[in-house]
Predict the structure.
Amino acid sequence: MPSAARHQELLTLAGHRDCVRTVAWSPDGRRLATGSGDARAKVWDVETGKELLTLRGHSDSVYSVAWSPDGKQLATGGWDNTVKVWDAEPRQARHCGTLADRP
């Protein structure tokens, strides 16, 4: 088994107010999406570590994040029983819609 001492940490992304529950690389490998117990998703530049977007709209923890194949949208799934779809371009970030668990 390879030794952990041989591996170097490349980047630390700090900014969530609660534990990170999910992480996903963008299709082009340039961005990372995270979802947290703070009910937010964030998009990060993996080269610089800069936070590009904070996506607010869930009322409880974000447990799932997934990129569209072209990397222009991000879907987030929350403990609030909703899936939200977002424009994921930093200059155009906006909430596109919600799929809710309905009785």
Summary: The first strand starts at residue 20 and ends at 25. The beta strands are 20-25, 31-36, 40-45, 51-56, 62-67, 73-78, 82-87, 94-100.
